[in-house]
Specification:
- The protein is α+β, with helices and mostly antiparallel strands.
- The chain folds into two domains: 241 residues, 4-Layer Sandwich (Glutamine Phosphoribosylpyrophosphate, subunit 1, domain 1); 192 residues, Rossmann fold (3-Layer(aba) Sandwich).
- Helix 1 crosses helix 8, helix 10 packs across helix 11 and helix 12 packs across helix 14.
- The protein is globular.
- It starts with 9 loop residues before the first strand and ends in a 5-residue tail after the last helix.
- Bound molecules: guanosine-5'-monophosphate (5GP) and magnesium ion.
Amino acid sequence: MESSVGHNCGLFGIYNVPDASAKTFLGLFALQHRGQESAGIVTSDGKKVRSKKGMGLVTEVFQKADLEELPGHIAIGHVRYSTTGSSRVVNIQPLVVDYSQGLMAVAHNGNLVNARTLRDEYEAFGSIFQTSTDSEVIVHLMAYPEHAGRKDCLGHCLRLIKGAYSFLFMTRDSLIGARDPQGFRPLVLGRITTPGQLGSIGEGYVLASETCALDQVGARLVREVEPGEIVTINSEGVHSEYFVPPKESKPAHCIFEHVYFSRPDSMVFGDNVHAVRIRLGAQLAIEQPAAADVVFSVPDSGNSAALGFARQSGIPLDYGFIRNHYVGRSFIKPNQLERETVVDMKINPVRSVIEGKRVVVVEDSLVRGTTFRKQAKILRQAGAREVHLRISCPPIRHGCFYGIDFPDPANLAVNAYKDVEGVRDFLGIDSLGYLSVEGLKKAVSKPGDAYCTACWTGKYPVAPTDHMDKFGMEKC
Ligand code: 5GP
Ligand code: MG
């Protein structure tokens, strides 16, 4: 199973609208930042289930005619994040299966930490796996005869899997969302006014990774799907049940969703992402001040934090880098050479802002450090007198087992170059400052222990049993 290592992805599902595939297309389009490798939509008209999936961006996979060939009032869709070694058509989600209980489509965001063990176990029972994704495990658990017959089949099977998952399921006549007991990844429920197909419930419903997708289709946020909760939407309305009681679930929301992954216009874990990033930037200015003439961001991911830094420090905010929006996220290209080329294509300095100035640049995170090393050179060439870099999260030292695609910990900048001073030297800049873990927690509204900070602290809320060897945890 070469791709058992995680992927953060985007999910969108809709129930009781006449044009479910078109709405899902729009929803996925709004979630494109969560995954650019592949996209898929599965629809149901109550009788027939249809699907279309492909490699590439949502707009590359789906043309108008494709959406017309996906009729139905229920749909789920998925955008998948790139991970090396797993770019295979068979892995594109949603997965569609026909098992003893009927047709079912599944879309997953997150990463299961015991998928390898469960896969071995169910293969020994005779299960034949079709893909190399961790996500497929849930299907085999549900199809296993002893489980399939249970009234609480889904909840029972969810209790058997460990790790990070927001799931969408679609059957011929229902839409279901579920979230792991830690609530690692976001998932929200929305409502949409629609002429509908099923007059009895009058309204349509949406389940999505982020609220920006609700906005895109004109839906209103109702609430989050809670950690440990299954929300079932069918002709009787919305039904909620907990497979792990709220008292027993221990939230560990991924703060990296706020730092980098989610869109600033979304509400995630009860906070607006932009507002959190402004607070991260302000806290950064308190903890890691810089004597500089101008502050600007590495766009777009550093924009909100740079605003917070400027407001707090009183240093004027400007636009020192202009980003070309026709280039995708730089991580899309798997090899190092291509990645560096894309960075050049993406960012260009504004000389008039930089020349002769002491600049403080705010970036959301450093992973390998390669992106900013190049940008530091670009800033020098544009005449910067001093370059100070401020990072709106702590040094990333540990692998993520819950869906963020960080490299082997040995390649993370602060490990590869020993310490913060080593990274500063590698980047070739005048100063480097990171936000503290305490500072990070101050910027979010829930208590600090309700978030996962494993990539900074090495404290893993769910033991990543199957992955011990792969990431060599002793190195962390
Ligand atoms: P580095 O060059 O240090 O490896 O990467 C840092 C850059 O990648 C920053 O601009 C940051 O915003 C971005 N970044 C951080 N995490 C991720 C991620 O998971 N995926 C992608 N595509 N970019 C990321
Ligand atoms: Mg960035």
